[in-house]
Amino acid sequence: MITLIVPGLIWTRQALADLSHDLPLPAFTALLGRGVLARPAPQASAAALAECFDLPTPLPAAALRRLALHGAVGDEEWLCLDPVRLQFHDRSLIVDHPRHLQLDAVEAAALAVSLAPTFAELGQLEVLAPDSWNLRLTDHAPEFTGLPDAVGRSAATLPPGPAHAPWRRAINEAQMILHTHPVNLARESAGRPLVNSLWPWGAGRLPPARNAAHDIVWGDDPVLRGIAQLFGTGGGALPVRYPDTLLRNALALVDALEQPARTGDAIAWRDALGELETTWLAPTHAALRAGRLDALRLVAPGDLGSAELRVRRQDLWRFWRKPRPLAELAPK
Predict the structure, then answer these.
(1) Spatial CA neighbour of 276 closest among 303, 257, 294
(2) Count of Cβ atoms closer than 10 Å to residue 110 Cβ
(3) Whether residue 151 is found in the same domain as residue 270
(4) Confidence category of residue 247, pLDDT binned at 50, 70, 90
(5) pLDDT on residue 185
(6) What is the domain extent for residue 293?
């Protein structure tokens, strides 16, 4: 069996119909027609991952990705504190993904050295990768909006109240430091995007190790790679296409549609959907028909709604069930 988690797949019914009506999706529409489609409650990608692996929510992303990128976590509580760019668009501050900054290691280190004293009372700042920073917390942190859920959306202010007060002060001070930091001044002169804030999210301790929920896990997200390491499963980066020699219970996070869905980039989204059909769904459909795969589970988490499609090998014999359009995935 293979489980595909595909965030960014769900739009409104009309949008899905308009975006996909002229795309050749024979495998996807055939699988929709023959399989069993459910529409669970809307959920974020992190919640879908937590559910697949029976992990707590909110998912302790900081501890999991530290396990993936550093290899040691301990019993401390960790928080993601990632460098971001907040940019104005239609009178709103929109959160951009840290990878779009294209920070290098020298820039990240220089920024972190300057910002670490601002957060010293809250924890110890460390750079796991240029676009992935963690804080080893000195005390329990309040809940924050996950960065994957905030990217491409209007940046909400931190909640009022005493629990978030020290975080509001620290973030405000960090923004002032970043405004005149030599790294940003050099980036501005070179026409590169500026780091103008930090985003706290994903606090928690590493969950206890458990028996593997899947034999192999594929994905480029370091949080998912941390989950795989926690469970002791094999895998690695997302393959360019479905490996047709698959003999094990696998899970793959195919997240190429998520960013264009968040930003409303219809052209990029259609291109990613075509790639999903060609590299994953068509080969999976063929493997089911040939008996090389016993089942497919496709999980599509989203803010508007979620969908879950289950297709067993024997379901393909239900020839009387016709292909269904992609708009069937949309919430009713």
Answers:
(1) 257
(2) 15
(3) no
(4) low
(5) 97
(6) 2-55+208-329
Task: Sheet with 36-38: list strands edge to edge.
Answer: 36-38, 307-312, 295-300, 2-5, 250-253, 216-218, 234-236
| 200 in the same domain as 213 | no
Give the predicted TM-score (pTM) of the model.
Answer: 0.89
> Using CA atoms, how far apart are residues 61 and 215, in angstroms rounded to an integer?
21
Cis-peptide into 160, omega within 30 deg: no
Write out the two tokens for 5: 């988690």
pLDDT digits (tens, 9 = 90+) for 177-204: 999 999 999 999 999 999 999 999 999 9
Alpha carbon distance 326, 32 (integer Å): 8
105 and 188 in a single domain? The answer is yes
Nearest to 94 by CA among 178, 16, 153, 48: 153
* CA dist 132 → 68, 88, 202, 204, 322 (Å): 12, 23, 12, 16, 46
Residues 188 and 70 placed together within one structural domain of the fold: yes
* Measured CA angle at 51 (ends 45, 53), to 5 deg: 110
Kindly report, residue by residue over 18-62, the tens digit of the pLDDT: 999 999 999 999 999 999 999 999 998 889 999 999 898 889 999
Same structural domain, 246 and 314: yes
Does residue 187 sit in the same domain as residue 88? yes
Question: Rounded distance, CA 87 to CA 1, Å?
Answer: 42
Through-space distance between the first and last CA atoms of the chain, rounded to whole angstroms: 28
Question: What average pLDDT score do residues 86-109 get?
Answer: 89
- In the chain, the number of structural domains is 2
d(CA 233, CA 250): 10
Q: Residues 291, 313: contact at Cβ < 8 Å?
A: yes
Q: Which residue has the tokens 């028909």?
A: 289
Decide if 199 contacts 95 (C-beta within 8 A): yes
Q: State the CATH number of the domain containing residue 281.
A: 3.40.720.10
